[in-house]
Amino acid sequence: MPSLPPPVRPESESPDFAAQFTAQFTAQFTAQYAVQLEKAIEIAVNAHRGQRDKSGAAYILHVLRVLLDSNDPIVMQAAVLHDIVEDTTVKPGDLIQAGIHPESIKAIELLTRQTQDSDPLQYADYIVRIKSNAIAKSVKLSDLRDNYRLDRVALRSDQTDEDVERIQKYVLSYQFLTDQMDLQEYHNRMSRLG
Fold this sequence. Notes:
Blueprint: H1 15-48, H2 60-67, H3 73-80, H4 84-87, H5 92-97, H6 102-111, H7 120-131, H8 134-147, H9 160-177, H10 183-191
Helix pairs in contact: 1-3, 2-3, 2-8, 3-6, 3-8, 6-8, 7-10, 8-9, 9-10
């Protein structure tokens, strides 16, 4: 039986076309996220200007470290802006107008604590809400890792008990978010703090 010649592809379906289309689409896709990420960084730098962390370092360094813990552009936007609504005058509507990705904004809203109450159970409820959103969870895990880094932890002589409780809260929350403990154990252990 004679073999059939290979099918003739229209030029628009050639392997080179597919590779070119993929490269062009990827470049446009990446460019869009690059613009959003640059805008997010600009907003963070301007909004956190002059703020200091508990050890006196420029606060912007914290959000940049959290950003650098990811390579996903949507997570990176949420990371660099994770404290923006809570700690500055920037509101979610400002982020929408700036063109920040909607999924990043949703995560930022989840990451924004509605109250600064020191009650560990209120903090636990906040963490439980975050766990339901993959972007917010990823950012919070990076945030917690950075918050309890040994070279960054503040143990102030006049607030040692408060600082130790904060670190315990961070470690328990990290363990819950990484499924090292269930919700009941998390709530039980958080209720013993404070």
